[in-house]
Inverse folding.
């Protein structure tokens, strides 16, 4: 049930139509660790600079996250600054300073190498492959990526996909990967390239999962206010991987349950800026929203 | 269980990325009648010119559609010509000739006035109101509209909404009606204006239904090819209204079942140009796709 995540740790300055935060805790690995910690013990790999708040790392530790793989380097933490448009689907990067993340090399601690579940958050696919090289035999590997690597590092990505069980991308990335705007055909092409399952995130419309012989669609939870979409995709992946690590159930039903927990975590995190909403969550609230997803989608037989 | 539809009857010339048809059978009332006829006896009100093919009217009659309310006028049938973009969400109207539809006055035949279920397809809201004036006491009234009336006839539309039970619009129309791009808030505003239920169509993302205390989301059926999106919204409404007329069950569960049947009908019609796909359908195929919707969305408890 051990769950490894490798990815960015950051300080984000984010402006949305509902407000602004400066130097909020960010980064895919951080969001993932917070969200997945409700389900399973998380092992986290990343890099921070001297400016990263110590209390965040101890908060994560208190939630059962092993932070021995988070390297503290001299220099500054990755800083990202962005502004979301009214529609929240579009954001502009205003500033990006990679800091210690520029030379990030994922060193998987000895004690992490037997991880059964591993999530490769969006980083250079060369590094994502090196993570897999260091694992002794994970049961399930999940992977994210982005347009930058799809356009600029395709051969490396193709080689990586052959070693990945579950790809988590958004609809634009799926189209970019396959040249096909139809998600049924795009998913079929992605499944042909290696992954056993492809989860396509569609923002406010939810998610659709394709695996051979099985399609599963979950709408997004209808929210009156979305404060900050940052981290929603990472928290979605965290709910999916976390629940799989907790249950160990990789059957079609187990996958469905996991995808709904992913949708639950994605729906919570956007209710406040940064990962703040996750810090006040309880498993009871998570299970209650799971039931609301059932109610939202339940079709009478 | 009598189901009335009032709306346009047309001849469409449609170009999509997958092909083109000239003078295909079109119009909201026609699509609605074809799709609803699987569920209940349909009473159709519209107007055609001398150029409208007789065999289509007899085909509808053979499907249990009462066409005594379809007036045959001297002049030409409404002709619309349009081209869909690659994305299928966007279409350009290339040509529009209203023909006999320009002076269309919905005269509800005496034998139709006791209709229990009535669908007001998208026409001038003044005419939609006049239809209601002629009915003796329908159990459920559904209503469609479009940006043209929302922008140009708002007071008439507002008065109409107070007499309508169920509004069927797409997400752009819901935003235009309320000035709110958030569908939860937009739906709340619409429910405040009269309808007991608002069904928001989201194209390839499915539909979300809001009624007080109940939200129900259904994804679209994942199709590898969409040949022609024309009529999808009308067939959706037809499945909803048809199933409600068939079952008479206006409970929350009955509404959900109807909305899924609506989604089924919308998913079928786009599989070919015009209403052609509907002409080869059977109730068995419809029920089979209903079960596929259950499989697509089923969340393990």
């Amino acid at each position: 049930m051990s769950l490894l995540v490798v990815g960015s740790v950051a300080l984000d300055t984010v402006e949305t139509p509902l407000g602004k935060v400066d130097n909020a805790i960010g980064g895919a690995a951080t969001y993932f660790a917070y969200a997945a910690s409700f389900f399973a013990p998380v092992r986290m790999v990343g890099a921070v600079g001297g400016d990263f708040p110590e209390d965040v790392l101890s908060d994560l530790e208190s939630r059962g996250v092993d932070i021995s793989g988070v390297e503290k380097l001299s220099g500054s933490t990755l800083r990202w600054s962005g502004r979301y448009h009214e529609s929240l689907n579009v954001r502009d990067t205003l500033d990006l300073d990679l800091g210690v993340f520029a030379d990030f090399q994922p060193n998987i601690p000895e004690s992490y190498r037997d991880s059964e579940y591993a999530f490769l958050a969006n980083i250079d696919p060369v590094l994502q492959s090196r993570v897999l090289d260091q694992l002794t035999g994970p049961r399930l590997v999940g992977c994210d990526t982005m347009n930058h690597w799809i356009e600029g590092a395709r051969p490396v990505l193709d080689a990586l996909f052959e070693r990945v069980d579950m790809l988590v991308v958004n609809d634009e990335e799926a189209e970019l990967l396959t040249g096909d705007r139809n998600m049924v055909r795009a998913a079929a092409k992605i499944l042909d390239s290696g992954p056993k399952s492809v989860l396509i995130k569609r923002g406010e419309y939810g998610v659709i999962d394709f695996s051979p012989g099985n399609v599963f669609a979950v709408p997004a939870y209808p929210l009156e206010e979305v404060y900050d979409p940052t981290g929603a995709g990472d928290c979605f992946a965290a709910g999916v991987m976390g629940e799989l690590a907790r249950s160990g159930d990789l059957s079609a039903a187990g996958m469905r349950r996991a995808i709904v927990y992913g949708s639950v975590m994605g729906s919570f995190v956007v209710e406040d800026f940064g990962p703040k909403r996750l810090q006040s969550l309880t498993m009871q609230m998570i299970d209650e929203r799971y039931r609301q997803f059932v109610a939202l989608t339940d079709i009478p037989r």
User: Anything to note?
Assistant: The two ends of chain B are 35 Å apart (CA to CA). Chain B touches chain A through 33 residues (CB under 8 Å). Chain B has a mean pLDDT of 96. Chain B has eleven helices and 13 strands.
